[in-house]
Amino acid sequence: MKLIPNAKQVAKKSLSLWVNRIAFALMILPEVLYALTGIDTNPALLFWAGAALYVAVEISRLIDQGIGDRASSPALVMIVALAMSAAPVPPPAFAGPVSEAEFLQEAVPLTSQWEGKRNTAYLDKIASPPRWTVCYGETRGVKQGDYYTDAECSAMLADGLVEYRNALHRAFTPETLQNRLTPKRDAAYVDLAWNAGVYAISRSTAVRRLNAGNIRGGCYAIGWWDKAGNRRIRGLVNRRKVDVACCLHGLDAAELAA
Predict the structure, then answer these.
(1) Helix axes 183-196 and 215-222, enclosed angle (nearest 10)
(2) CB of 50 closer than 8 Å to CB of 27
(3) pLDDT of 224-243, one tens digit each?
């Protein structure tokens, strides 16, 4: 037995039903588009467009049903929840751009724990062409028989991380560099670039979200980079979990203090 005898006809003519469907489609479109094509869009813009449609249709329901009607209570709860989530959150109060020394204090231990270290040069036969490699994967100027101490390897890694950081920072907006990076967050993004490449990460959803002011969403998008050859790798899954945790570190406290 149908609750509404002409349910199909009602559904076709129901404005609120179709607005809800459009709103939902807008909110998930960036992720679907990225998953299917690898194309990035600004997720914040489409998300809030969808949220605005939800609010509009629920307000229309309240007007039709009457504010005092018990049946309007769920709609009122949804409007309040959306209004609270849509309220702008002031950016965390940072002391300005992260210094290179602050960055390295976080980045060197973060990246070195995942990169195998070999003090004596070895021939990396997986590389094409094979290359003499040493320390944490350094190849520039390395030749057979080279040996480096642990301190020299750490210094070599630091130089490489700074180089990657400088390149990745070109993809960040001035607002991001000034107000959205902490030492840990800076290190997390650079560790991702060290692992996946500056070019790819500069165009990633993680960077786009951060530049759009969606700090939390950008951090979560770092976790997407846990695959190699379209297959999830346990080591990459664990590495990205640590990166995401570093990126999110102190975010709640900073938002509350702002």
Answers:
(1) 40
(2) yes
(3) 999 887 888 899 999 999 99
Q: Domains (ranges, CATH) in the chain?
A: 7-86 (no CATH), 100-121+148-257 (1.10.530.40)
Residue 246 has pLDDT above 70, yes or no: yes
State the Cα–Cα distance between residues 10 and 246, nearest whole angstrom. 50
Query: Which tokens in the block code for residue 212?
Result: 């759009």
73 or 196, which is more confident: 196
SS3 146: coil
Report how far residue 176's alpha carbon sits from residue 198's, in angstroms, rounded to the nearest whole number. Answer: 17
Query: Using CA of residue 116, residue 122, residue 125, residue 131, what is the dihedral sign?
Result: positive
Pairing type for strands 227-228 and 131-135 reads: unpaired
- Given a cut of 70, whether residue 257 has pLDDT beyond it is no
**Predicted pLDDT at 191:** 96
